[in-house]
Amino acid sequence: MLSTLPVTGAPIWADLGTTDPKGAAAFYRSLFGWDFEQGGEEVGGYGTFRLDGRAVAGGMAVTPDMGAPSWSLYFRTPDADATAKQVEQAGGSTTWEPVGILDLGRMAGFTDAAGVAFSVWQPGEHKGFEAVNEPGALIWTELYTPDIEAGAAFYGAVFGWRTLTQPFEDGSYTMVYPGEGTEEDMFGGLWPLAEDPAEQEAGAYWLPYFQVDDIDAVVERARAAGGAVRAARMDLAGVGAFAKLADPHGARFALMQPEPPQ
């Protein structure tokens, strides 16, 4: 489950860049029951997806020249400018320099040493997620990367992440947690890109997982609303059920239905 610790390197926000904000709002409402609150001119129209009134993600319009529609993940930092220097020192690059957004906070965008995009948020008035680890909210994150060891080293250098490799029947899975947390504060996994045919063509990236309480029903609603199933349901004993989808404009995300607590 997603770490909720307010510490450096923990996931703090996610947002959707899409060429059709109205269509995207309708699609995700049909899946998760989200409402979309459109932002004003002072934030460039950047809006908020809400679940029962609580902020669970952001959304903004992008043009084709800005890149394909996609979900982006933000990790907490106490100092976006210092993180930018750490990214450069670790072999990554800055996509956009740290910038303040009114009194809400500061943000910056980067690519890691393998070219994977990610962002940081230095919270001000906007503290990040108001709901996680429940149906309709973010529950997990996953990095598809060409080199697990190098990826772990990069994010370890930037955020202080620590890793735990868990064996399972077909191999192993590397999980990450904040340096200020414990193994109980896992929030994501690292997976070798070459081992997942569903991801190889599009390339390395961060994938957000949203929790659902009936994965089959949500998959069918996604199909009916014009989405695509990129990887059919898979069940992992002791963890739960998973499926990978794309919205009608191609933004990739995943579903997770956790096993009930014993």
Automatic annotation (TrEMBL):
Domain spans labelled VOC: 10-123, 137-258
UniProt xrefs under CDD domains: SgaA_N_like
Domain of life: Bacteria
Stretches of the chain forming a coiled coil according to its record: none
Pfam hit, one: Glyoxalase_6
InterPro entries per record: Anthracycline_SecMetBiosynth, Glyas_Bleomycin-R_OHBP_Dase, Glyas_Fos-R_dOase_dom, Glyoxalase_6, VOC_core
Protein name according to UniProt: VOC family protein
Organism name: Streptomyces typhae
Organism lineage string: Bacteria, Bacillati, Actinomycetota, Actinomycetes, Kitasatosporales
